[in-house]
Each structure stands twice: as C-alpha cells, then as structure tokens.
C-alpha cells in the first residue's frame, strides 16, 4: 500500500517493498499531482503495471553525455563538467526514485558557486527530458528540485580601448581584433572559414559540424578593422585550432600588459562599444546572435545618456527647509 503525507510545502510518498519501509520526496507539487503518483505506485505494487525502468541516474546522465558529444561537440566540455558532480553523488540511485530533498541538500551544501550548481541541475533536467521523450523513464526527480537562488548580479566585463590596442598588437593580434569587431564566440571563431565571408559580411551559421549557441544563423557586416584582421588570418579556416586552444593563445598574448580578461570579454567589448555608440538593443541582439533581448539588456546602461534624464529630474535641494516651513 502506498500513502502520502505532507510536510511543509512538500509531499512525500511512503510504501513497503520486501518488508522494507521506503519513502520518496515528491517535492512542492499540488495534491492532485501527488495523488496521481501515489495511485501509480499503488498499481505497480499490485502488479497491475510494470515497475519503473530500473535504470540508474548515472545511466540517464551518461546517455545524455554520449549524445551531447556527438550532437553538440562545441558545448560538450561544459555539459560534461556540469553533470559529473551529479553522477559522482547520485549515479547509483534508481533513476526515478531519487529523493528530490536529497538533491536540494546537496545543492545547499555544495562548495561550488550557486550559478554552477544551477547549471548542473538544469543540465540534469535536460537529460531527463530527453530520456522521457525516448521513453527511457516516465518521471524526472530533478523537475521537482527547487533551484538555488543566484544572488550575484554583475555588469558584463569588457576591455578598455588601451587593453584592446595592446591585444591587437600581440603575436596573434589579428584573431583578437577580428573577434572584437565581429562579436564571435570562441567556438564560432574556431570553425569560421573564408567561405563564410561573402559580400562584405561574415555569415555565422548553425551546422551539424558546429552549431551556434542559439541554434540560429546570423550575419555581421565587416568593418575596416575586421577586414584588416581578416587579411592576416588563415587561407581556409581562419584559425586552425580547437576553441580551447584560443584560451591558451590568449593567455600568452595578454603577457604583462593586459592583466585581466578572457576571450569572451572580446564579445562583451563588441556589445558594450556598440551600446556606447548609440546602436539600438535590437540591432545589438541581432549582430551578437543573442537568443532573447533579455541577454542584450545587460548592456543597456552603456547607452548614451542612460538614466541621465531621470536623474536630472531629481531635486533634493531645500527639502529640509521646506518641511521646516510647513511646520511653522
């Protein structure tokens, strides 16, 4: 027999199997959803339906990694890094019987930053959605896990013009100059070829050999600086290396003159200086290939005169004297 009980905002499912009392957290769901899960477990215990898949968490997450390595090679390194901690902690648990409360405790006690933990949990949700679509599992315990709140919020960092000038003069300066003037990501730079340059534009396309982050293609007009850099890049592939090699080259080229930043700061610099020049957020979104305008809004404070009109209306002079006059 399967029973429900509620503690706080969360429901729990209890049942006995082979003489052992078992419990599973259902998370913060409503009574109807909890009752549906209880009824399913009751039917399973009565032999009316087949039990759950018998697969483990590790099987589901590793299957997603195997697929990701083939389907999304550009982002596989990050996907692997996100899922490995979950496989290490919960890999041996039954795929559909993992206690959501146990995962929430792991998230709360993790030494990693909240944003890193959230990325791991979101990636696990994606892995389970794929498993559900393929009918490998019927239920996802990660869907019931409450994500930690990410309280850190910072403006996107970018290079000063002096720092960019020093980078452009480095040994591989043509690469950094091209990326800063086109807004390319590392993965996009690593797969760019001469054939992608047509009619004075760079076409950034999502292909089986290398997809864009949003999965959509875009084009970026080449300005004078980008065209000058292009002359010094490769005859076929613009850079003949893996995207991670760009990190190593960038560290070498920074030397002692540029003491901060990563290749991705070049993309931030692209968006930042466009915003400072008065380019609309919509145009920046299209040029950068952001999936939503929300991403682009992070640069809105760089727009000329941003907030100045509002602050210009603020006048606190004489407030205290006016209050004193009103009391007399």
TrEMBL record:
<dbReference type="GO" id="GO:0015074">
    <property type="term" value="P:DNA integration"/>
</dbReference>
<keyword id="KW-0229">DNA integration</keyword>
<dbReference type="InterPro" id="IPR013762">
    <property type="entry name" value="Integrase-like_cat_sf"/>
</dbReference>
<protein>
    <submittedName>
        <fullName>Integrase</fullName>
    </submittedName>
</protein>
<keyword id="KW-0238">DNA-binding</keyword>
<dbReference type="InterPro" id="IPR002104">
    <property type="entry name" value="Integrase_catalytic"/>
</dbReference>
<dbReference type="Pfam" id="PF00589">
    <property type="entry name" value="Phage_integrase"/>
</dbReference>
<feature type="domain" description="Tyr recombinase">
    <location>
        <begin position="154"/>
        <end position="313"/>
    </location>
</feature>
<dbReference type="InterPro" id="IPR050090">
    <property type="entry name" value="Tyrosine_recombinase_XerCD"/>
</dbReference>
<dbReference type="InterPro" id="IPR010998">
    <property type="entry name" value="Integrase_recombinase_N"/>
</dbReference>
<dbReference type="InterPro" id="IPR044068">
    <property type="entry name" value="CB"/>
</dbReference>
<keyword id="KW-0233">DNA recombination</keyword>
<dbReference type="GO" id="GO:0006310">
    <property type="term" value="P:DNA recombination"/>
</dbReference>
<feature type="domain" description="Core-binding (CB)">
    <location>
        <begin position="55"/>
        <end position="132"/>
    </location>
</feature>
<dbReference type="InterPro" id="IPR011010">
    <property type="entry name" value="DNA_brk_join_enz"/>
</dbReference>
<dbReference type="GO" id="GO:0003677">
    <property type="term" value="F:DNA binding"/>
</dbReference>
